[in-house]
């Protein structure tokens, strides 16, 4: 009996987290924002680049006010608040919810409890033919609202729109392998060429960013562009080289 006072007591951090989890569990059903009742089941990608998805419990909250001027649509920006306070995901992870694919653009482990992430609705798909297995690779992506012309081509006889598209996509191994500079894609029925990308925003210790920001510019149409299936022509020409031919001098 004398040793009862020495029974294990959790440290303050564990005690606080246990109380928080118990409170969330008790209040979980007291809202109309939880899934799957609101919008259907929420499916989480099993990992960056995975084709498998697993159900996860979360509350759905908008992040854009109803007074939006049109610069942001409330349906395109949501916050997922997970039931499990220890649930943490990385930027670039995909979710399936409400008939759409969503990508995590804001994920931090210092937000407090409960854990939440910001997601954006993927409003387009980048498609490219994979030369390795001869199949069409598709990557859900976010095309930013502003499709602007940063510079007018006034030095040429024919002025063509120099539209500039900023695209957000998951940085998985297939994307790194296939989405090379100067590859072409169909967005909204128009061909765009990938001219630059932001791959320097990285978490310390990670080998590669899991979220990429791509810059694409409107390109001239090719005869091989498949507009109906949103697949651009990326055929290449290999010029033969004879190493025995001497290099011309003079």
The rounded Rg comes to 24 Å
DSSP helix count?
Answer: 2
Low-confidence stretches: 237-250
Helix content: under 10%
From the structure above, extract its key features.
250 residues, single chain, seven-stranded antiparallel beta sheet, mainly beta, disordered C terminus, six-stranded antiparallel beta sheet
How are the SSEs ordered, and which strands pair?
Blueprint: H1 12-27, E1 43-45, E2 53-55, E3 58-62, E4 77-82, E5 94-97, E6 100-107, E7 116-121, E8 124-130, E9 135-143, E10 164-170, H2 173-178, E11 184-187, E12 190-198, E13 211-218
Antiparallel strand pairs: 1-2, 1-5, 3-4, 4-7, 5-6, 6-7, 8-9, 9-10, 10-13, 11-12, 12-13
Description:
It is a single chain. This protein is mostly beta strands and 250 residues long. It is 9% helix and 32% strand. The chain is built from two helices and 13 strands. Strands 2-1-5-6-7-4-3 form a seven-stranded antiparallel β-sheet, with no helix packed on it. The longest helix has 16 residues, at 12-27. The chain is elongated, with a radius of gyration of 24 Å. It starts with 11 loop residues before the first helix and ends in a 32-residue tail after the last strand. The model is unreliable at 237-250 (pLDDT under 50).
Provide a quick synopsis of the model:
9% of the residues lie in helices and 32% in strands. The protein contains two helices and 13 strands. It starts with 11 loop residues before the first helix and ends in a 32-residue tail after the last strand.
């Amino acid at each position: 009996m004398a040793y009862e006072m020495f029974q294990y007591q959790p440290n303050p951090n564990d005690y606080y987290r246990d109380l928080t989890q118990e409170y969330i569990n008790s209040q979980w059903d007291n809202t109309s924002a939880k899934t799957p009742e609101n919008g259907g089941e929420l499916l989480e990608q099993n990992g960056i680049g995975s084709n498998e998805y697993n159900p996860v419990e979360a509350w759905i909250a908008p992040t854009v006010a109803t007074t939006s001027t049109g610069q942001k649509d409330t349906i395109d920006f949501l916050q997922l608040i997970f039931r499990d306070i220890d649930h943490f995901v990385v930027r670039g992870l995909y979710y399936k919810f409400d008939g759409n694919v969503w990508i995590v653009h804001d994920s931090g482990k210092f937000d407090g409890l409960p854990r939440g992430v910001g997601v954006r609705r993927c409003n387009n798909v980048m498609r490219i033919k994979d030369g390795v297995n001869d199949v069409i690779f598709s990557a859900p992506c976010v095309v930013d609202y502003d499709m602007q012309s940063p510079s007018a081509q006034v030095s040429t006889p024919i002025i063509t729109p120099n539209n500039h598209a900023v695209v957000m996509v998951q940085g998985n191994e297939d994307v790194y392998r296939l989405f090379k500079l100067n590859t072409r894609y169909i967005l909204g029925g128009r061909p765009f060429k990938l001219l630059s990308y932001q791959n320097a925003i990285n978490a310390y210790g990670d080998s590669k960013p899991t979220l990429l920001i791509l810059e694409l510019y409107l390109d001239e149409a090719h005869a091989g562009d498949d507009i109906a299936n949103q697949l651009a022509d990326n055929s290449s020409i290999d010029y033969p080289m004879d190493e025995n031919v001497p290099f011309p001098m003079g």
